[in-house]
């Protein structure tokens, strides 16, 4: 690609970029393109907005073509902008790999792993990171926890290195490696009238109020799908919350029953104030996957983590299963209501 310089001579774009572009400009451009917002990029990079605009203008001047178009408050990459974005991602990945390789040569593996996980996988992810971190003390983590809908957007925007989510929807361009099972169960306070009943029908469950995750949540969708498959109406939703931990508090406070991942009870063990109900159609068997965008070249750190998880996944799953089986089998005694939830 060539462009005219001020004297009318044709200069190569690569030459112009090498002479005039700073890594700071590329970093600012990459953040704006990834986040689709000048404001969010400025926040992420701790810069003032005029600085962001100025850096972008300098880069666009060097390239000689607009990189973004603005329609109302939305900004979109132009075709040239998309090419520059791809090149930027390659530059930063190569630099991150270089950092890891040099650290490897010095005998220390260093770098940062950007992992985004779906809300209910926040119980599993720290265990994976903890075990991995013990093997690679030089690697830092950034962990983003968000719901299924938002996580799918992050994957589409290549915002992170790796993702933990439930079944990826068909058509999503990801490579997904099965991690561990994720059983969704019905939970109630230990002194709820349904606690201690056996083989509770779905119809009976629908007679009592629910405290449910927000729309966009994979857990909520899975419950609604189960009810639809049985030709049943949606539950009475007394309260909607986007935090599993707040839902557990609401359950203990007697606001209703819920459906959540059994993993969310792992810390309480068998002594917590919440009972797993013996309900027909449950557990809904979901699975966790570790995924990355198809065709995305993984950083050395991300590849090392993926290899670790694929090798250790079965052992981690076994250990988790054992712990969760005890939680599910815990006897329900309606008089032994406890008042505190651990792990908040
Ligand atoms: P959620 O997703 O945390 O958004 O409810 C869980 C799942 O997809 O199983």
Describe the protein's topology.
Layout: E1 2-4, E2 10-12, H1 13-20, H2 23-35, H3 38-44, H4 49-63, E3 68-71, E4 74-77, H5 79-105, E5 111-118, H6 125-135, E6 139-146, H7 148-156, E7 162-165, E8 174-189, H8 202-205, E9 210-213, H9 218-229, E10 237-241, H10 244-252, E11 258-261, E12 274-276, E13 284-293, H11 300-329
The structure holds 2-phosphoglycolic acid.
2-phosphoglycolic acid binds next to helix 9.
Kindly summarize this structure in a few lines.
Helices cover 42% and strands 22% of the residues. The protein is built from eleven helices and 13 strands.
What would you note in describing this structure?
With 344 residues, this protein is α/β, with parallel strands linked by helices. The protein folds into 3 domains: 3-93, Arc Repressor Mutant, subunit A (Orthogonal Bundle), CATH 1.10.10.10; 94-181 and 288-323, D-Maltodextrin-Binding Protein, domain 2; 184-285, 3-Layer(aba) Sandwich (D-Maltodextrin-Binding Protein, domain 2), CATH 3.40.190.10. The chain contains 11 helices and 13 strands. It has helices at residues 13-20, 23-35, 38-44, 49-63, 79-105, 125-135, 148-156, 202-205, 218-229, 244-252, 300-329, and strands at 2-4, 10-12, 68-71, 74-77, 111-118, 139-146, 162-165, 174-189, 210-213, 237-241, 258-261, 274-276, 284-293. The strands form 4 sheets. Strands 5, 6, 7, 8, 11, 12 and 13 form a 7-stranded mixed sheet that branches. Strands 1-2 form a two-stranded antiparallel ribbon. A hairpin with a 2-residue loop joins strand 3 and strand 4. 2-phosphoglycolic acid (PGA) binds at residues 118-120, 147-148, 166, 182, 213, 217-219, 286. 2-phosphoglycolic acid binds next to helix 9.
């Amino acid at each position: 690609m060539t462009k005219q310089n001020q004297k009318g001579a044709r200069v190569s774009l690569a030459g112009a970029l090498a002479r005039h572009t700073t890594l700071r400009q590329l970093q600012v451009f990459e953040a704006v393109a990834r986040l689709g917002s000048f404001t969010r990029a400025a926040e992420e990079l701790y810069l003032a907005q005029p600085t962001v605009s100025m850096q972008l203008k300098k880069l666009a001047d060097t390239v000689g073509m607009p990189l973004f178009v603005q329609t109302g408050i939305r900004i979109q990459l132009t075709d040239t902008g998309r090419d520059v974005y791809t090149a930027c991602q390659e530059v930063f990945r190569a630099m991150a790999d270089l950092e890891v390789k040099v650290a490897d040569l010095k005998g220390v593996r260093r770098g940062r792993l950007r992992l985004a996980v779906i809300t209910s996988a926040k119980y599993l992810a720290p265990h994976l990171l903890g075990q991995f971190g013990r093997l690679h003390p030089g690697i830092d983590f950034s962990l983003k926890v968000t719901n299924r809908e938002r996580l799918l957007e992050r994957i589409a925007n290549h915002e992170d290195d790796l993702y933990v989510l439930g079944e990826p929807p068909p058509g999503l361009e990801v490579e997904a490696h099965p991690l561990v099972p994720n059983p969704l169960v019905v939970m109630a306070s230990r002194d709820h009238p349904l606690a201690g009943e056996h083989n509770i029908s779905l119809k009976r469950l629908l007679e009592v109020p629910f405290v449910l995750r927000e729309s966009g949540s994979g857990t909520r969708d899975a419950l609604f799908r189960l009810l639809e498959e049985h030709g049943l109406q949606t539950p009475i939703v007394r309260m909607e919350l986007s935090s599993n931990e707040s839902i557990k508090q609401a359950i203990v406070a007697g606001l209703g029953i819920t459906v959540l991942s059994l993993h969310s009870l792992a810390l309480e063990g068998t002594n917590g104030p919440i009972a797993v109900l013996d309900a027909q159609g449950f557990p809904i068997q979901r699975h966790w996957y570790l995924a990355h965008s198809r065709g995305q070249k993984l950083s050395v750190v991300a590849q090392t983590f993926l290899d670790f998880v694929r090798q250790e996944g079965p052992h981690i799953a076994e250990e988790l299963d054992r712990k969760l089986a005890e939680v599910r089998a815990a006897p329900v005694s309606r008089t032994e209501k406890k008042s505190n939830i651990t792990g908040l």
